[in-house]
Amino acid sequence: MTSGCARSTFAAMDRIDGRSGDELRPVAFDLGIAPYAGGSVLVAMGNTRVICGVTIEENVPRWMKEQGVTGGWLSAEYAMLPYSTQPRKPRDIAKGRIDGRSMEIQRLIGRSLRAVVDLEKLGPRTVWVDCDVLQADGGTRTAAITGASLAVAMACRKLAREKKIDAPPVRKLVAAVSAGVLDGQAIVDLNYEEDKLVTVDFNLVATEDGEFVEVQGSGEEATFAQSQLDEMLALGRKGIAELVAAQRAVLARIMVSPPE
Predict the structure, then answer these.
(1) How far apart, in Å, are the Cα atoms of 129 and each of 1, 40, 172?
(2) Bridge partner residues of 206 (DSSP)
(3) Does 8 have pLDDT greater than 50?
(4) Which residue blocks in the chain are alpha helix, DSSP H?
(5) DSSP letter at 91?
(6) Could you tell me if 205 and 182 are in contact, meaning their C-beta atoms sit under 8 angstroms apart?
């Protein structure tokens, strides 16, 4: 690990948008954005905005039935809307296939959420998680995971309120954040401009008790030291803890007054 002195240097670093090295962009959750969904959240991390909607179907994929797999399933889909970027991003349907990046991200979202949902308790149901990017300014996959975790928790609580299951099957909350190395210093929660400039790019997914679900990282035509890796992991843990605290605050509010 790097020394406390080095960390204070990173924390004091001035970034493109004025944040310190260990500072997240402003985070907000707007609930009930899609009334027909079992749970829905518009998550904003800085200028990145993603709608996360959850639909629960009373059946399971055919492969589960054929293989005799008990319990339920959770699957995710991810898309960037055409106006979420400049220039316009054509819809996948216009190309006749989903692009490789979208496929990779939706699989990551699915893995991240299945890690914290008890599929046996869910019963023979499928949880569909749809994440649609309204505006992209870096970190769309991490914002999608963080927002989708809330949307799934809300949808499962609704199932329990409707007496369809005995208790919500969500074991833990999960959140995600990016990290990187810019000008030799570790930073957290990259915006688009920083994402273009960093020499190391990381995405970290972890549960509310600090256990990692997935760590994705690579040098962008560069290498990185063990000390930089340790610093990015530490910044990622700190950022995820802050995101989980924000998720918890939202869930505490809706326990008092559930969204319609």
Answers:
(1) 37, 9, 17
(2) 175, 212
(3) no
(4) 4-12, 62-67, 92-95, 100-114, 119-122, 140-161, 192-197, 226-256
(5) P
(6) no
User: CATH number for the domain including 46?
Assistant: 3.30.230.70
Where does the pLDDT of residue 259 fall: very low under 50, low under 70, confident under 90, or very high at 90 and above? low
Spatial distance between the Cα atoms of 119 and 124, rounded to a whole number of angstroms: 9
φ/ψ of 43, rounded to 5, equals -100, 135
Mean of the pLDDT values across residues 207-216? 96
Please say if the pLDDT value at position 204 is more than 80. yes
State how many domains the chain has.
1
The parent domain of residue 186 ranges over 4-256
What whole-number distance in Å separates Cα of residue 121 and Cα of residue 51? 26
Six-digit token string for 18? 């004025």
Q: Which segment of 6-10, 33-37, 98-102, 198-202 scores lowest on mean pLDDT?
A: 6-10
The long-range contacts involving 5-9, CB below 8 angstroms and separated by at least 24 positions, are 6/227, 6/231, 7/231, 7/234, 9/185
Q: Which of 205, 91, 83, 77 is nearest to 139 (CA)?
A: 205
Closest CA to 131 of 203, 75, 53, 204: 53
